[in-house]
C-alpha cells in the first residue's frame, strides 16, 4: 500500500466565516454542496454519493475556524476545512486539506474545485 500524500487547496469565499462554517459543519450545510445526502449520529457523519456511503467522524472543530473529519474505514486519513480571514482586507479563505494517492492528485484537486464551485454558487460568492 502506498502512503497517501497531503494536498492543501485554498479558495477565496465571499461570505462571513460564520455562514461558511455552517456549510462545513452541519448535515444540512454539507448536503447542499458536498454530498447528495448527509446523516449524522453524534460525531459520525455518513456521506452519500450516488448510493455509496462513507462515514467520517468529526474529530476536531473550532467554531467559525476549523472542522476536521476522519474517515472511519481508512486509518490516518482525514479531510479538513480551515477558515481564515485576512486582517487587512477582510477576505475570507477556505483551506481544504485532503489526502490522496500520488497518481490521483489531479483528480482530487479537480473534485475539490468542482465541490467548492458548488459551495460558492450556493453562497452567492
From TrEMBL:
InterPro entries: START-like_dom_sf (IPR023393), START_2 (IPR045736). Residues 1-124 form the START-like domain. Coiled coil: none annotated. It comes from Maribellus comscasis. Pfam families: START_2. This is SRPBCC domain-containing protein. SUPFAM superfamilies: Bet v1-like.
Amino acid at each position: 500500500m502506498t502512503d497517501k500524500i497531503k494536498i492543501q487547496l485554498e479558495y477565496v469565499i465571499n461570505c462571513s466565516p460564520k455562514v461558511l462554517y455552517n456549510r462545513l459543519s452541519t448535515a444540512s450545510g454539507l448536503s447542499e454542496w458536498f454530498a447528495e445526502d448527509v446523516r449524522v449520529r453524534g460525531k459520525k457523519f455518513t456521506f452519500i454519493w450516488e448510493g455509496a456511503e462513507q462515514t467520517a467522524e468529526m474529530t476536531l472543530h473550532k467554531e467559525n475556524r476549523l472542522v476536521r473529519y476522519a474517515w472511519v474505514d481508512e486509518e490516518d486519513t482525514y479531510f479538513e476545512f480551515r477558515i481564515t480571514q485576512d486582517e487587512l482586507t477582510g477576505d475570507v479563505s477556505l483551506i481544504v486539506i485532503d489526502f490522496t494517492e500520488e497518481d490521483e492528485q489531479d483528480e482530487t484537486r479537480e473534485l475539490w474545485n468542482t465541490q467548492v464551485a458548488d459551495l460558492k454558487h450556493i453562497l452567492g460568492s
